[in-house]
Amino acid sequence: MMHDLPKFAVIGRVNKGKSSIVSTLAEDDTVIIDRGAGTTRACREFPVRIDDTVLLLLIDTPGFQQAPRALAWMKEHEVSAANRREVVADFVREFGHTDEFADECRLLQPILEGAGILYVVDGAKPFRRNYEAEMEILRWTGQPRMALINHIGEGDFSKEWMPALDQYFSIVRHFDAHRVSFADRVRLLQSFRELHDGWRANLDQAIESLQTEWQRRQREAAHIIARMLVDQLTFSKELVLARYETPDDHKFKLEREFHNALRERERKARQQIEKLYHHSKLETDEQDLEKPVFEQDLFAESTWNLLGLNPKQLIGLGAITGATVGGMIDLAVGGASFLAGTVLGGAIGAGSAIFYSAQRLATIENIMKYVQGAQVLRIGPHRNKNFPWVLLDRALLHYISIRDLAHSRRERLHLTENQEKTGLVSRLDHELRKQLARQFEEIRKKTGDDTSKELTRLSKLLLQVVKEI
Amino acid sequence: MRRETCISHLWSLTNFNFARIATQQGNRLRLAELINLENELIACRDADPQQLRKRDRAIGKKLEQAQTSRAALFLAWLDELGPRQHSSLGERVVEAYRTMQILLLIVGVLAGASAASATLAFDGSSPVNVVHFLAVFVGMQTLFLLFFVISLLPNRIAKWIPGHGELLHLVRSLSYFAGKLAGRVAEQLPADKSSRWQQDWHALRLRHKLYQKVERWLLYGLTQRFSLAFNTGALVLCLYLIVFSDLAFAWNTTLQVSSQAFHEITTVIAAPWAAFSDQAVPSLELVELSRYFRIEGQYQIAGESARSSNPAAVGGWWPFLVLSLVTYGLLPRMLTFLLTRMKLNSLLKNVPLDSADCDALYDRLTTPIIETRAIEPEEPAVTAHQPYAPVAVQAEVQTCDVVLWGEIALDRSRAELAVQQRFGWRCQNVLPAGGLDAQVDDETCSKLTKDGQEKQPILVLVESWEVPNKALLHFLQQLRSKSTPKRALLVGLINTEGNGLQHPPEREDWQTWRETLADLQDPYLRVETMVVTA
Fold it and tell me: Could you give the residue range(s) of every CATH 3.40.50 domain in chain B?
């Protein structure tokens, strides 16, 4: 008897990646994944809930431990093919309260209650005939079955596995739990639809909701990064000096506090992205992480060498911005200036890009006197032309690492394997980069003012970026 | 009926009390709600995104059926957040604004009356100089009206007007000093009020531009209310003095202005009503008759004898002055006041709720929450194991029995070779177990234990990357139970690949095997690697 609620029991031999697959599919990094034998000792349910309505149930199960012996018992009690499911049920009844086949009984129970079977094997290890015992037991249950070839190591024995799995399972798919994209997850759910007609409605709804959720996350990620950029680009710090104090008494302290505040803003945005993609474990492990490019200090020289725009691009953007302003002046005088405004504007823009790109660290640049006569030290906002690009690059690198990080991975977070991806902004579409540059300039003008309009515009631009990368 | 509707509409415009004016959708935001909305959106920035999403989606689900527009949805969201938020910043700002309105109304009326009283001051020693009145109530008012109109112009146009920059600078300076003054006032307040005032001020400064335009028109509303009150006060006092005292008007100026020229000026001023009321347009005769000079410390009227014979010439200016006040003061200010009201209503009705924060809120309210994680926490994995301390195999051992477990990729000859190379032992029996047929396990176990070969170890060769499952543990326990307690049992780890090549096991695998087998608490059970790392 099939239930309306689609249930999928993830079944397999001990330590073949069942929990990894569940952890990835359920985006749950709290699942215990260990190389030790039989880490999962009881069935654990992962309901896919849309506004508290359960649409789908994934069940992580203990692994097969003694499948050949269990099959031997079943064969002894088999009358005909017609009663095989009943024999499996008898087996669970017979040994359900004993220790002898405890794991087999636990894993078979949800299947007998109507769950479909996701049978997991490790395609990195060779096929052995004794796997047929567990496949045969699963066939005896008569439930819809799909096999997933996971890849835990470096080897690839898929060709050995495929013919065997094809004998027992209606659908066989490759699914690397550690390197799976959102599209792969959706494709897997779409495969589930083929297992049983009665589950399609729920699965369709689940797929649609997941896609909506993915888009929502992209929007929110773009908003988080945009807000961080606006905060960073407009942030300044002031210190009012007492009458007996000199600027040198506080200069270094103020510089340190200013840069620490910038680092803190970046860290906070990262945490929000990690939470958005349900990576709660990364928070606690943060201190232990290796430091790929985006983890190096924001103001480290290597960070600035690798990320942001290269000098040529910066000067080019500066020149374009300056020339645009100059061009407007030319236009205003009806061309009487013979394009002098455009040329001069371009030169000034390029020059300022060179001048302001020299310093990675902001310095105290302003000592002013209030009406009352008090001296005020002021630092920031950071004026380096490359600063927003470095920030954006780091944010995007962090974003894609988190977005693509499977929840089953327990090792330290590394920057994306593709080393070419260090420095994403330099490869953005030229027009998009121009719009971003213009927006950064607008934001920088808004120091101390309300920046919501700029934030909204930047969020929209970054949404394009986030969708593209 | 239509007239009543018009009157009622006008009344609603003049009596703006920040109540939500009903519309067909009922979705207009009040100012207080707008401020609260911004305040809440700012608070959302620092809140935990997951909790925020849960809270807002729960609210969104409640409102799913009823609401259509963003404004309506956000209003209902504010309502759902509870009364605490509603009594906070927005209401306090509106309350402060109302207080300001009343104060300005009172000050305006008093200022207008004072101005009228000053310009119409008459003690009988000298006549009332209409030039003063016109300067204050026509000249100055027209100038201020002009400022107001300039301030409405878009920046790109206004910046070309001479003095506009200086004017803005002056306004900024005044705002700065007003801010400082407000700060000083706040310092004088009791500690709790001062602290709340500062918090409110900080929250307002943090705001984004949701109500920036509204704010500008609120300020205009205040200034126009003051001007309206000023003119009303002036008019009332004018009428009072005209009715209840005997004012004698004349005109005088140090400038060399002829009666003819002054008459032309008054004619221009009176142009708006000239077509309706001749009496309110000063004639040349009146202008000539009412000019006076100060000679030798005494005032002398130009047409003194004619004035005596024509008393109307003494008070003949009043209709002109009253209509000047109404036309250049009261009516324009009524119009600008109505304009600000209409603009405010329109802005509140069409607040662009499309900022990034508004979008995020709309997302949170309308996008379903997808949860995929387990509800119940997982039981912690067993990490404690028995210590691994097996007894060494006796040195005199020459032969052993071998079990090829779990269809390991080794044939008999390769297994014998591996054992010879690793231990120097000769293999007596090489038998399979752990395969598809469980019956074979029992047969192998029986064969290896039937002779009671206590000194001949049994070596079970396994693939190191498989974890020790219960089937193997069961087999080892069977071997132990059927042989003597001290017979050496060895589990040999081989890291094979498909082509039969052998490598040392990975360290983690070796560790797993040792820990798992140690839990059997069999001191004569050892784990060995068959290929030793060079």
Answer: 399-529
Question: Between chain A and chain B, how many beta carbons pairs sit less than 8 Å apart?
Answer: 169
Q: Which domains does chain A have, with CATH numbers?
A: 7-195 (3.40.50.300), 217-468 (no CATH)
CB contact under 8 A, B435 and A31: no
Phi (first) and psi of residue B401, to 5 degrees: -100, 145
> B203-222: per-residue pLDDT in tens?
666 555 566 677 788 888 88
Q: Which fold has domain B399-529?
A: Rossmann fold (3.40.50)
**ipTM greater than 0.90, yes or no?**
no
* Selected residues 39-58 of chain A with any CB under 8 Å from a CB in chain B: 39, 41-42, 44-51, 58
Q: Percentages helix, strand, coil for chain A, rounded to the nearest 5?
A: 55, 10, 30
- Kind of pairing, strands B489-496 and B525-529? parallel
Helix (H) or strand (E) holding A7: strand A7-12
* A442 has a chain B CB within 8 A of its CB: no
Q: Running DSSP on this structure, what letter comes out for residue A13?
A: B
Contact B459, B402 (CB under 8 A): yes
**CB-nearest partner of A65 from B372, B437, B471:** B471
Please give the Cα distance from B334 to B225 (Å, whole number). 9
Helices B331-349 + B141-152 axis angle, to 10: 20
Chain A residues whose CB is inside 8 A of the B61 CB are 51
Contact list in A for residue B39 (CB cut-off 8 A) is none
- On chain B, the residues whose CB falls within 8 A of the CB of A160 are 498
pLDDT higher at B321 or B531: B321
> Does any CB of chain B come closer than 8 Å to the CB of residue A210?
yes
Task: Give the burial class of A170: count Cβ atoms within 10 A of its Cβ; 0-12 exposed, 13-18 middle, 19 or more buried.
Answer: exposed
Q: What is the pLDDT of residues A179-194, one digit of tens each?
A: 888 889 899 999 998 8
Buried b (16+ CB within 10 A) or exposed e, A172-210: beebbbbebeeebbbebbebbbebbeebeebbebbbebb
Q: Does the beta-carbon distance from A37 to B516 stay under 8 Å?
A: yes
Indicate the SS3 state at residue B416.
helix
Q: pLDDT tens digits for A57-113? A: 999 999 999 999 999 999 999 888 889 999 999 999 999 998 889 999 999 999 999
